[in-house]
Write a structure and sequence with these properties.
Layout (H helix, E strand, L loop, with lengths): L11 H14 L3 H15 L21 H18 L4
Helix pairs in contact: 1-2
């Protein structure tokens, strides 16, 4: 992968922590900074597709706690009755 050089301003205390971590981990300070840039890029990425693309049929309203509990209990009973539970 090719790299592109850039300049950034950083807090001296952050740079001291990076320097210490690099020494402790046996890697370059630049590698830690690259990892941080990658994490920041991924945290701010806008995805082309939604995370959840499936839709489900429902009541058209938010279910109550008891309705959710009953539905889950029914599903567990069905799984147990058919012998397909893990």
């Amino acid at each position: 992968m090719s790299m592109k050089r850039t300049n950034v301003y950083a807090d001296p205390e952050d740079l001291a922590i990076i320097k210490e971590a690099a020494k402790r981990r046996g890697i370059s300070e630049a590698e830690i900074i690259r990892q941080g840039i990658h994490l920041a890029a991924m945290a701010n990425r806008v995805w082309d597709e939604p995370l959840f693309s499936r839709t489900f049929e429902g009541a058209g309203r938010t279910l109550s706690n008891s309705e959710v509990r009953d539905t889950v209990a029914d599903a567990v009973r069905r799984e147990t009755d058919t012998g397909t539970a893990a």
